[in-house]
Amino acid sequence: MEEAIIDGIKKGESLEHQTDVTDVNDEFAYLQRNEFTSEVFKIEVRNLGYFGIGELKKLLRNKLKLDMSKIKSPTHKEFAFVCFRSQADQQKAIKILNGYKWKGKILRAFVAKASADPLQKKRKEENQSEKQAYPVNKKQRTSAEATCPLAGMPYEEQLKQKGSNMEQLIKTFKGELTRINKSASKPLEDFKFEGVEPSPQITGYRNKNEFTVGKNSAGEIVVGFRLGSYADGSVEVSEVDHLPHLPDAAKWAARTFQQLVRHSKYEPFNPETNSGHFRQLTVRTSSQTKEIMLMVGIYSSNLNATDLEEIKSELIKYYDTRSGEESQFTCTSLYYQDVKHREAGQMVSPIEHLFGATHITDNIDNLEFRISPLAFFQINTAAADILYQKVIALAQPQLHSTVLDIYCGIGSIALAFSKHCKRVLGVEIISTAVNDAEYNAQKNRVQNCKFYAGNADDYIQSMVKEVVYDTAPGEELDLIAVVDPPRAGLHNRSIAAIRAASAIKRLVYISCNPERARLNWIELGRPESKQYKGNPFFPKTAIAVDMFPHTTHTELVVLFERQMENLLEENSKKTEGNAVEV
């Protein structure tokens, strides 16, 4: 459910600071609380036809100057829900959009009913099921089933299953792309999958873990993993001590923080009522240095300044003086994170350094990396060595090549490429990660890498222009793009920018969510259009690297090459054929 800003109920608070008393089992009770939710100010827009979320955002924000908070559209066809922050903004939007002509269609806009609380809706459905003559007994998942469901399977079998899954996904992708672009048929015949590379480390490999603070089925406070999503009707949290993919340092962090929360006067966060305070714990560990970074997430909307300072002091005292029964583990870096409803334009929840070092350090491919709290770093350090070797082998950089590292993070891919090419240009939206990348390049004495802080969508074209401009007359230009996007994949604007940059001939796509990335691959291979200018990219080779043993996930790396001569020849033949027919 959307996070909200409220004055939460705390023991001993006066009535004026308490939320409205409502039936928490009501699907719409959240609307009656003393909190913000844009569901109150929602409209439905109809008769849109087929559309992209990006183009609808551009219409609403840029052209019509409407201050919306979010757009929801299950199908990207005919209708969309648009949420606002106030009734005035909602009414203004209805007035402007109702009867507005867009893409040849007359739009209709009207007030929309708020969505039901998914948790309460699911529970209501389950209650109805229990009243039936033959109710279905629902077995609650364990934390192992929720997070590492393949742990009971021999590792060789895990690799076989993942290889089979990737082969099926590639088969589906090839069929979809062939239907969309007939000229892809021949290149796809040569597209090969080279199997799954095993991880060198299969237990305790996760160097970053995000734990939830909540309660188990017995009502005890637990720091661990959620057993399901809010929308699926689950808020239960389970302990993590027995999970094979977590390092002992992360388990120690979860246990010790659980002890702190259980003895604190402040409560765990309750997502059903948006009350409570301790919300999450992010743990980063280094296998090289044994450093442990903790980032404590606090829901602060129902806390005053004095409360916040008390919680921070409690955290500092607990970890700064702690030796405990497991003194081989020590918190070397402690951060406070303010986890609540984000303000407009806020990308991440803000953090505050409390004590210890500001970073941790780890190594990949004999390179040393400084890692800040919010920066992306490969979750399995040992397997990342293999991943980067495979990426470089697929890209085949030459000493005159330039590499664009899109979503460069702290520069780990850029620095790995640096000794195999002329130079690397990287872009990353998190500015602190770019600071890390620049520091890491200097620390490792790498001088041919340059990094930009900003949105990849906005920087791709300018980086390509910089490379072309700096290429001397007669000098061979070999430009390779490497993308390692978040799980959601590349934005359509990034795909359009890559396709429009004709200087990019090869693209290596690294994906931790191949099923979602498949949609990007289709856009890369579509025929040229108004939205996607430039010849398409077709896949040549794919290889998986098992970055996530015991889970159903794997990393898939795909090399794409831009279709050039064959496509031009085919288009030329079609043109000649049409002339003859005329």
From TrEMBL:
Q: Residue spans with biased composition (Basic and acidic residues)?
A: 119-129
The alphabetized list of GO BP terms reads:
methylation; RNA processing
> PROSITE patterns, from UniProt?
RRM, SAM_MT_RNA_M5U, TRMA_2
Which InterPro entries does the annotation name?
Answer: MeTrfase_TrmA_CS, Nucleotide-bd_a/b_plait_sf, RBD_domain_sf, RRM_dom, SAM-dependent_MTases_sf, TRM2_met, U5_MeTrfase_fam
Supply the alphabetized keyword list. Answer: Methyltransferase, RNA-binding, S-adenosyl-L-methionine, Transferase
Region described as Disordered: spans on this chain: 118-139
**EC number from the UniProt entry:** 2.1.1.35
A Pfam family (short name) is tRNA_U5-meth_tr
Record GO terms (molecular function): RNA binding; tRNA (uracil(54)-C5)-methyltransferase activity, S-adenosyl methionine-dependent
Top EC category: transferase
| Domain RRM: start-end pairs | 41-114
The protein, known as: tRNA (uracil(54)-C(5))-methyltransferase
